[in-house]
Design brief:
The structure holds 2 protein chains of 2 kinds. Chain A is an all-alpha fold. Chain A has helices at about 1-40, 60-65, 70-100, 105-115, 120-135, 140-165, 170-180, 185-210, 215-220, 230-240, 240-260, 265. Helices cover about 75% and strands about 0% of the residues of chain A. The chains are: A mainly alpha, B mainly alpha.
Chain lengths: ~280, ~290
């Protein structure tokens, strides 16, 4: 009996240690690759090595002195991400709040359609959009990219906003309307403040995923509106240019900066039950 | 009197809420109709076009009649399945640690998952090129320690591709699983241990089954994500491994073969839909749970 208890305690201790060790490996796997790129970007040598043989900022300087194409691509990506985020955040918030409040079967169907770009292969959608645009004789450019990215980023807004909207007490909206407020006024003064966190989170994720999106942009690419990830992809297809590392360094720094300014959105939820 | 007054006013929640509640969703619905549903319909029509200008199954016959196309499709699905297995294996211990952690460690673990998810895929793919390249870290260590005489070819192998894709898809698997684990009632686990089950058995027979919906949801995201990860597939997989997204791009943009590219795209979409439906029908409901 005593021996059983001892084996049991040893097995339980092994479980705890095993979980801790395995999750440490997972965390390392998650974080190490990005850290490697950031460290490697400060190399002083002409090729990418880790650890770098010497340190310098020369590849960051090179970005601003001799990389017009990269900067132009970054500007295009920024504009496309900002505009498509604006489109899908405004339209997505309106739609998600309406869907959360409605009980009709149409709401379920609309939700499924708006969420479907998440699982639909983006390259297939990109080809579909390209076919329609060329059949309609539309010239490809920044605006066609904005349309494509708006579709691809909508699921993030819908998911985040509806998660917030489902927690809004419908009695508050009924109260506002019973007191004579119009639906528009109720939306602006009651619903919107209550779902603001979800809207911000949705906008944030949709901006980042548009900035990073390749398949649709690749299908709709025209030489003058090349986006940053496509430009980097083209460079990497041919050789390991160290300038890519410094672009990555800047992208990582910007991501962390934005993420921490949204720090309240990232906080872990509290456990609902004691433990 | 009272009845007359009451009926003169609109009943609360009556006529007012019966007005079209979904009206605010129409702008987005219009955008999706014009820029999503119509294009997808056009994709289907173009895939059915024949070279003589008529309608026919010619492109599908070409796709299904050539073993090469089947291999590309099967390879894409197998790659996604391999990636999904690796992400699940890596995510489970992390999610258990997240469940048992204190508030500060929990926030740190959440950040460790969220920050990579928000970091650009191109950046993370590039990281694997630096790590696994000819002059990369792994080769540097192997040669430096005298284990290898010359650098090995690590990039452009299936193993490298699975590892890189798993690292990139890991947050998508981990987040839903972590949420599901957090919601599992402690009393269930305490009951299991009080009845004499070890922590291993409790984890395998109680915790994992209760967190199964999160595991399935994450696996779905990881599977679909890996299958369409064009950038990682091309850069880490190299030219010798061809998957569906690049095949579509090659046929459409490289060869101007739009009809066949559309057929490949339709086959890919249908295959993914079937996989999603199969996964969402997986037996995740357990007896005794609502």
């Amino acid at each position: 009996m005593a021996r059983d208890a001892w084996t049991r305690r040893a097995a339980d201790a092994a479980f705890g240690t095993g979980i801790r060790a395995a999750s440490l490996v997972t965390v390392l796997l998650l974080l190490a690759p990005t850290a490697v790129v950031v460290v490697a970007s400060f190399t002083g040598s002409g090729t990418l090595q880790f650890p770098p043989p010497s340190w310098s900022l020369r590849w960051y300087e090179a970005l601003f002195t001799s990389s017009d194409q990269l900067l132009a691509a970054a500007r295009t990506s920024f504009v496309v991400a900002a505009l498509s985020t604006l489109v899908c955040t405004v339209l997505g918030t309106l739609a998600a709040c309406a869907i959360a409040r409605s009980r009709s079967r149409w709401a379920v169907a609309l939700d499924a359609v708006f969420m479907s770009p998440m699982v639909l292969p983006a390259m297939a959608f990109g080809l579909a959009l390209l076919l329609v645009l060329s059949l309609a004789g539309v010239t490809l450019g920044t605006w066609t990219l904005v349309v494509g990215h708006s579709i691809v980023c909508t699921p993030f807004v819908i998911r985040m906003v509806s998660a917030s909207a489902q927690q809004v007490d419908p009695a508050l909206l009924d109260a506002s309307e019973a007191l004579g407020a119009s639906e528009a006024f109720t939306f602006a003064r009651v619903t919107l403040p209550l779902v603001a966190r979800g809207v911000a989170a949705g906008a944030f994720v949709s901006f980042l995923s548009s900035f990073d999106h390749v398949p649709v942009s690749l299908m709709l690419a025209d030489p003058r509106s090349e986006t940053l990830p496509i430009h980097l992809w083209t460079i990497l297809e041919s050789n390991l240019d160290v300038r890519v590392a410094s672009v990555c360094g800047i992208v990582v720094a910007a991501t962390i900066l934005i993420a921490f300014s949204f720090e309240r959105l990232l906080r872990a939820p509290a456990r609902t039950r004691g433990g | 009197m009272a009845i007359a007054i009451a009926s003169a006013r609109p009943a609360p929640g009556g006529a007012r809420t019966r007005r079209p509640e979904l009206l605010p969703a129409t702008p987005l619905a219009a955008l999706f109709f014009a820029a999503y549903l119509v294009p997808l319909a056009a994709l289907g029509v173009v895939s059915l076009s024949a070279t003589d200008g008529g309608i026919g199954l010619q492109h599908y016959r070409k796709f299904l009649g050539d073993g090469f196309n089947w291999r590309v499709l099967a390879d894409t699905l197998v790659l996604s399945a391999q990636v999904t297995v690796v992400t699940a294996l890596a995510a489970v211990p992390l999610a258990i640690a997240y469940r048992t952690a204190g508030p500060r460690l929990r926030t740190a673990l959440l950040l460790a998952v969220l920050l990579p998810m928000l970091t650009s895929t191109v950046v993370r793919t590039f990281a694997w090129l630096v790590i696994l390249g000819r002059e990369g870290i792994v080769n540097g260590m192997l040669v430096g320690w005298g284990l290898l005489d010359e650098p090995a070819r690590l990039l452009y192998t299936r193993g490298a591709l699975v590892l890189a894709l798993a690292q990139i898809m890991l947050p998508l698997q981990a987040l839903p699983l972590m949420n599901a684990m957090l919601r599992v009632d402690d009393q269930m686990l305490q009951a299991s241990e009080a009845l004499g089950a070890s922590r291993w058995r409790t984890c395998w027979r109680v915790l994992l089954p209760l967190a199964m919906p999160g595991l399935v949801a994450g696996a779905l995201l990881s599977f679909t994500g890996a299958s369409t990860a064009f950038v990682t597939q091309t850069l880490v997989g190299g030219g010798r491994q061809l998957f569906m997204p690049q095949y579509i791009h090659q046929q459409a943009i490289g060869l101007n073969n739009y009809g066949f590219a559309a057929a490949v795209a339709v086959v890919f979409v249908v295959a993914m839909l079937l996989a999603v439906v199969a996964a969402s029908r997986a037996p995740v409901r357990l007896p005794g749970r609502a």
